[in-house]
Amino acid sequence: MENISEFWLLIKYAFLGVFQGVTEPIPVSSSGHLVILRELFGIEIKGLSFEILVNFGSLIAVLIVYREDIIRLIQNSLRYIFKQKADAKSDFRFVLFLVAATIPTGIIGLLLEDYISSKLSGVAVVGVTLLITGVALWIIRNLQGVKEDDEITIKDAVIIGLAQSVALVPGISRSGATIVAAMLVGLKKKTALRFSFLLYIPVSLGVTMLSIGDIVNDPNFNVLMIPYILAFIASIIATFYALKWFINIMEKGKLKYFSFYCFIVGILVILFL
């Protein structure tokens, strides 16, 4: 009987890892869906270690998918800083704009984290914010954009960063909010995608680094180390394939299907949960 219980525990955490991984890169809000999942199935996860680990798993997958862009941006930024190579200036500016877009999220997160956690994390709020996400995706569903990487401005970066800050509220998709903002300021789909997911890296990395103490001091981590590690691996694999799939969806201009999904789930949550 104990073996069966342990088996189902592993299945549950593996499922949660896959669930986090699939919903993180696509514009449907992973945090909102975790709230819904916990409400539906009565799943209670104590402490922050689990959420930190599965988000770190998603970060690793994003690093893998965009590894060539990351290496190029780092190399060219260093070339521009130390050698003043003109052909590296565009990538250096791109990195600066990523930093500028990260700042609003960091400031607003520090100021409003407690309020959002206590007041805006209920399932009813998630239902409403999913509808908001659906409307935003519907608005940009046919936009094409004209700006390439080297045409992004500091104003564009700050607007996208502020949009990412809104996604601190469960139900507002981070990828959705940043891509919507990027498309509205005129970025091409490919550029909007790249900026959105490269912007995810410093935020996620910062949260992970600041939360190491929570993991070390979390009594649940030692007890549930194997399920947590399983969920972590599952989130890496699921995020990798979900992100590759979403990039393909963006290229084909089929964002409207995510909008429909958010509308349906949001309405069901409001009516029945």
What attributes characterize this protein structure?
273 residues, 13 helices, transmembrane helix, mainly alpha, globular
Structure, explained:
Helix content is 79%, strand content 0%. The chain is an all-alpha fold. The protein has one domain. Helix 1 packs antiparallel against helix 2 and helix 7 runs antiparallel to helix 8 (174-184). The two termini are 33 Å apart.
Strand-helix topology:
Layout: H1 2-23, H2 30-41, H3 49-65, H4 67-83, H5 89-119, H6 123-139, H7 154-166, H8 174-184, H9 189-210, H10 212-216, H11 219-223, H12 225-251, H13 256-272
Helix pairs in contact: 1-2, 1-12, 2-6, 3-9, 3-12, 4-5, 5-7, 5-9, 6-13, 7-8, 8-9
Care to give the gist of this entry?
This protein has 273 residues and is an all-alpha fold. It contains 13 helices and no strands.
